[in-house]
Please model this.
Amino acid sequence: MNSHLCHAAESATAKPATASTPDAMPGSAHDALQIQNGCAAPLSAVPLFSFSEFSHWLAVRTREGNRVTALFAVPLGAFGKGLAAVPGNPAATEERWRLYAVLADEGSPRLLIAAAETGSRYPALTPRIPQVHLFERELYEKHGILPEGHPWLKPVRFSNPHGPLAGNMDFYRVHGDEVHEVAVGPIHAGVIECGHFRFQCQGEVVMHLEISLGYHHRGMESLLQAGPHARTLPLMEVLAGDSTVAHSWAYCSIREALAGVAPSPRGQLIRALGLELERLANHTGDLGAIAGDIGFLPTLSFCGRLRGDWLNMSAMLCGSRFGRGLALPGGSAFEIDHALARKLQDFLQRTARDVQGAVQLIWNAPSVLARLAGIGSVSRETATALGLVGPAARACGLMRDARHLHPLPGLPVPPDIAIEPEGDVRARTAVRHQEITASTAFCLRLLKEFLAGEDNGEAQEAATVAHDFSLPAPGQESIAVALVEGWRGEICHAALTGRDGRFLSYHVTDPSFHNWMGLAVALRGQQISDFPLCNKSFNLSYCGHDQ
Model:
């Protein structure tokens, strides 16, 4: 077994539990396959539960603090003969599916994976586990698997060929005196993608916001099946264009895990630098946009320019302002020499100083603080129930950061985690500001490592390991999972491969998939005029959600 398959815990060979006694019902972490982030395991090692056991396992694990990072289905017909059906559950005439759940343990670096078999319907998980509500809607839309009893079974991306056209659905409505409806989009005045927002208001107060997306669904996951091929990595880079480094790094980690090849340590450091530059650019732009939404023009103007400086540093690193081409399986396509490290170091320090000056204007203006505080609040309990990730979660007091909780191999100690408890716009603004400070320090530390090696005259290893990733290595059916903390939050890639090494299934969960419902909840009880500010404080991705 190669080094990337060796992280499966002793439960990797566990047999499906039976429900003959209460003690046999799965609930502890030991009932699941355990792997580390960026690792792979034989697909046969994933415990296969009956659906009732699977439901119980998910409920117990999420109640104890684990979080669902991926929930997806693969038709049984896609597998080889090596995978048997659940004991006591003979194959039916209807098409059957295998559900896979990947859970992130919030108290350790392990990821938990389990599976269950189902037909075209099953009792919905959402009533007990709210954070899976969108995953179950996706299962129904993509595969026609009906979660019976789901409270909000509406289209996610309108990708069902037999379903309604994008936006053509019944919206939730409130009736009564002084109640009115406000529709925004799907076409917006700015240079952004389509999304429809439907507000139910009493006077100026929002009672409910319904968000309808999917207007630009590209079917990316279907394009990834039977890969990897020449266009797979370019597709990963445009899953969400402002998160190019994060998504491409997750994909490269999947490829390395499946090949059993550790990436170049130097390449990992270059990826980490590119990821933090991506974070710095977007956080700086967001802070300027938040200031702009309340008419505070000094910070808006400064940050608009300074975002460009961070992007230019990415271009210095790899020739692309958005980090395209930086990551490739085995490491990085680019190198950092002494001259470039010095240039980046100077540019980084100068830009960080200017950003601090621009953002400090926000905290020195009482009128600005009054406009941010108490607006769009999400409680810690709600954030936990919805499974929020990234700055949106950390602004609610949740310590959710894959760089700390689920670090990829070969990386130094990550930046400090910024936590704010209030869950409002001010907290989301403060988290971004603190993360700029932490990411700047981290980037300087990385550059110092590059300079130290050069100054000592040490022989530097290549940024990419010598391995042919052009064709997948045939072998056993496998599963691999990679988490990367993008600037919006946790990105999850999960791949299942057949014996030929090709993807049977490739599932991507962008952080926006977790967080759009958080925006809807944040607007409840707010003035409708607060929507632009709340929306910008989350700044979620349309294309990352729609894929």
In short: Residues 1-24, 81-93 have pLDDT under 50 and may be disordered. Residues 277 and 310 are 6 Å apart (CA to CA).
